[in-house]
Fold this protein.
Amino acid sequence: MGMNRAGQLIASCCGAAIVVAAAGIVIVGAGRRQSSRVVPAKLGTGGTADVTGAPSPIGAAPVSGGTTSAVSGPVTIPGPGEIGQVPGSVTESLVLQKNETFYGKGEAFFRDGDYVSASRYLQAEVGKHPDRFYPTYLLGLSLWKGGALDEAIDSLTRAASLDTKSVKTRVNLARVLNDAGRHEDALKAADEAIALDADDSAARNVRGRALLNLGRQDEAIEAFKTAVEKEPGSAWAQNNLGFALIQAGRFSDAVPYLEEAVRLKPEVGIFQNNLGMAYERTGDRDRAIDSYRTAVKAGGSDAAGRNLSRLGGTVDDETVEPTTADPGQGKTIAPAGPKQN
């Protein structure tokens, strides 16, 4: 791509990191490796469970009243033959106040971001009621957010079998499979979601991520383009398309998508960092410095500080030629012979 080896791109999705060494790009999901070299931003998940994979808020209200106690001790998913049984070692260590339920406590812990405790209570609920979709689905999300990818895959696969029409279950299953490095399986899950709802942007987005991880760059770009078309207001889809275009060496083509991602979510440092990369590779050094500086101030992108230092800027510097243009309407950078794939 003609990129300085000091600079890299980080792309998210929600889970384990995947390194594309040839391009000097690190795709970071929710759980993760970080490069010791300079990086731009993440590839995002987008859609209903945008977490950098994080799931969107749950519909039911959390349980109130009483006290909640997180308890220690591992809890495993029941194996074949154990479904429908709640091992005593699970329930004996869990605390319920009057009128509380395992599901209610699990959901409350999920809302509070305590995914380990959420998983334990939801495991007990699923053990009692293995035929209920939503506890099984929420258990999968909790396990995923808690870093137990294999168990999350099992739970979400089970949830998908309980609700054969659930698009969000298959989208999130694809995200976890991507994070676990099972990209072919992720692509299959994404395609199942698209078969159920061809207009779902999140399904197109996670499909693009799977294709990018499989090295099918052209198809990934088309998938991200479709995600943007289905939901132009998805900052993650805009960022992911820009990221994929940068990876393909199409820096000028990447600029408008990254500008739109920044316009939609200016507080996300990784978007600012990726935009800085696109500006830098098209020769717009001043705007690159400005984007890197904004990324550093926003936080969330360690690479931005290294990129800024590499170009000789500091966080407190003024931009040489500051611009007040709306990023989405910023100047168009003339193509410089971008690589067309």
Remarks:
- The CA atoms of residues 140 and 152 lie 4 Å apart.
- The radius of gyration is 22 Å.
- The chain has two domains: 9-46+203-329, 60-146.
- Strands lie at 9-11, 18-20, 25-27.
